[in-house]
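Issue 218. Parser rejects a valid record. Input:
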Amino acid sequence: MIRFLTKGLLRDRSRSLFPVVIITITVGIVIFTVGFMKGTMNSVFLDTAVIISGHEKVVTRAYKEESQMLPNDLALLDIDQIMIGLEKNYPEFFWSPRISFGGLLDIPDSSGETKNQGPVVAIGIDLLNNNSRMIEIWKLDNNLILGRLPETSDEALISQKLASKLNISVGDTGTFIGTTMHNAFTTYNFHIVGIFDLRKGQVDNQMMLVDLSGARKALDMENAASEIFGFTHSLFYDDNEAVDLRTNYNEVYSDTSDIFSPIMMALRDSSNQMGSMVDLVDAFLAIIGGVFLVIVMVVLWNMGLMSGLRRYGEIGLRLAMGESKGDVYRSMIIEAIVIGLTGTIIGTGIGLGLTYYVQENGIDYSEVVSTMSTTSMVMPNMFYAHVTPDLFYIGFIPGVIATVLGTMLAGLAIYKREMSQLFKELEA
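Output the parser choked on:
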């Protein structure tokens, strides 16, 4: 029967081609819209996570309360041991220590006298370890506009905004002036080997990036770190997963009576604003995605219904030739399944292809982002789609189910009609 129906559909393209095209376009739009909404929200979360919070972040309880002051005298100690525990017990995330510190950056002239001087916020991340993903998640290969990446512990990258303010060029040496984790005065020379531009509004106004080993030397923080950042391997943030992991860690490892005890925070915990944002995004995706899916299903359901109702004459002729109502009804359903599957498979392929393209290349919103600034959330300059497992099957809901349901309803109406009524409609 299926071969017979397939041949019939191929011969009569007027009744098959249009529904297939409509289903293909609709499913493709559904796939891309859902993928882009998820990717856009994840772009916001990821950029905030990279710079401020991680998907998870481990700090001491004391550091958490004073984090705005970058209090490295309250930093995590015995980092190697903590890292072993995190990597062993929570392998679904990858973990990386970080040192955040502030002070002055002094730029000398050729005679050694101060040429320029200004405040700097420096971040020590794992740049030199081949197994580290920091270069990847900071997108330094793309964001580096001059020079090269650091190759030794005393080499640094500075933001284009800071370079412009202090008139710094690649090849200059900047002297960091600040305090160690023991509150002792310290100076340390960093050789500027590259200039970057994150293109994320005002977030990198005073930023310098150094290797973790260089930050430890400058601040006397051997085997210590301000924070340990954790990221999912896919770099896609799942709030439920993050909250569950944070809750488990704090129940097992955190001691409320010890201010130097480690505590884990999920991305939503970085600020009240971020927590509200995560909840708002989840609700938005659920509501918009649900409404959009219902609308699409109604459209395709109606298409299936009208397609069936327009065939009263054909149905009457088939019945006159001796086919039973049951056979006619089953053939309509099978035909709808074939059409729905064909359109859905093609539409899913097109939608996934478009989603993947935007995932890799993004859409540039830098002009809009440049006018925005927030203290608790970093706005990305590029918005990306994201291919998730549900995109491979979500199109079948409207593409097949809605189409078949519409056809079933139309077929049911035909099934219940009297034979004489169908013959009259055939004559008409």
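Fixed in the parser; the record now loads. The mean pLDDT is 82.
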